[in-house]
Each structure stands twice: as C-alpha cells, then as structure tokens.
Amino acid sequence: MVDCPTCGESFDSSRGLGVHHSAVHDELLPNRECARCGTEFHSEHEKKYCSEECRDEAVSFEGENNPNYSGGKDTTECEICGSTFDYYPSEKPGLYCSTCVEEEEWRYTPDVEGKNHPRWSGGERELECKECGATFTRRRSFSDSDHVFCSDECQYAWLSEAFTGEGHPNWEGGTEANYGRGWNRIRRQALERDDHECVICGTGREDLGRNPDVHHIVPVRAFVETPATAETDAHYLENVVSLCPACHRKAEFGYVARERLEAAV
C-alpha cells in the first residue's frame, strides 16, 4: 500500500497513486532524484540532474573532461620569427605563431607559369593560314589539323569553296550545269545590279579576286521538289543576291535571315 503525500489516501500500487495525484491534485509525482543536490523531480526521460545549473556545476568540460581533449597544448618555436607559442596538437604540428600567420607570407604558392604548368604542351607555335597564307601563332594544344586559319573570315571562305558542289556532304550528283536554262543570264543581271559586291558585308570583286557568288534566296531544290514548278523557275532577279563566299556559307546554313536577303534585292 502507498499513501498519497498530499491527501493521505492509500493505493495498491505506485501507478495508481501517480494517476490519482495527477488527476486530483493536478501535479505529477517525482520519479527521479538529482545526482548533485538530491532534489526529487519528475521527468519522462532519463535525466541525472534537476536543472541545467546542477548539470553545469556537476560536469566539467575543462581539460581532460572536454570531449575534444587531445592532450592539452604543446609548446614549440615559430619557424619564421623563432618565438615560442602554444598550440593544440592535431594531425599537423604547430609551425607559425599567431602574429606570423596574420602578417607574414607563409602560404606556398606554386609556380605554374610556362613549362611549370601541368597542362604545358610546348607553348605557341608558328602556323600558316590555309586560306590567305598569313603567318600567325597559336598554342600547341591546338589541333594538328592541316586546315588552320588566321581568322573566322578565312575559315568561312575556305569552307565555302571546299564544300561547294561535290565537296558538300549532301552532294547527290547535282543538276545540269549552271542550274540549267536561264541561270547565266540571271547571274549576270544580279552581279550588275549589286555592283559586283556582297550585299551583306560589301566585299567586292577586287577584294575577292573574282566575282561574288550568286545565291538563291528560295533554294532551287524547293522548286525542283514541287510538282508545279521546275528548276528554271528559281531563276528570277528577285530571288537571287550577290554574296561573298563567307556570307554565302552563312546564308546556306541559315545564319543570315531570309528577310535580310530579300531586303537587299
């Protein structure tokens, strides 16, 4: 039998007493004793101390009692100024005092210039432009391809020439010479109308060493593939413009808007 400490009523078990005291007296009975001060208190969880104050006074985190303690401080000499200083031992030994760490140059800066760079591949080399023959320099990491160019303009010009006709990856045999009947006449008229200059960049016959290309705004294949029209139907003055090889290639691959070409006619 256990008696209620508040009203004296008796109960067969501690559990019954606890339920009574909580319901009748609105207070939980103590179920633990503080390991420091001995005060009885209630806690639903395992607790050794009745308060944070008791815990702080009973448990020390200094020296060896600190969970991060690794033997205390060691004393050594600074490798820069020679002064003595204390440090906490770890995987790395103490090298520099706090003053030198803040004020001196102690970090190692690797030399990665020139040949010391991990990606060094021989520096620059002298190359000759495949298109214009000009000499220029480029880093050796650049591809060893035989086709090297000093500028984008030279590359576009070479590609335009190399990918014309049978050199084009989509070449399927072509059509009749010069696009068939009427093509030579329209080509001459377009060059005369455009003063033998590219309508996009203004490059002329003298600069190119030849006449500019004449480009169909609506491709000839569009007329060939349509049952109602033929190849020759593509050859009318409003459908052709003069372009230098570089601009011609851009137009062929869709980098020049159709509206811009039509506006130049």
Describe this structure in words.
- With about 260 residues, the chain is of the alpha+beta class.
- The protein has three domains: about 1-60, no CATH class; about 125-165, no CATH class; about 180-265, no CATH class.
- Helix content is about 25%, strand content about 15%.
- Strands 1-2 form a two-stranded antiparallel ribbon. The protein has a two-stranded antiparallel sheet with strand order 3-4. It has a two-stranded antiparallel sheet with strand order 5-6.
- β3 and β4 form a beta hairpin.
- α4 crosses α8.
Task: Summarize the SSE layout with pairings.
Blueprint: E1 2-3, E2 10-11, H1 14-24, E3 32-33, E4 40-41, H2 52-58, E5 74-77, E6 84-87, H3 98-103, E7 124-128, E8 135-139, H4 152-162, H5 183-193, H6 205-208, E9 213-216, H7 220-224, E10 240-243, H8 245-252, H9 258-264
Antiparallel strand pairs: 1-2, 3-4, 5-6, 7-8, 9-10
Helix pairs in contact: 4-8
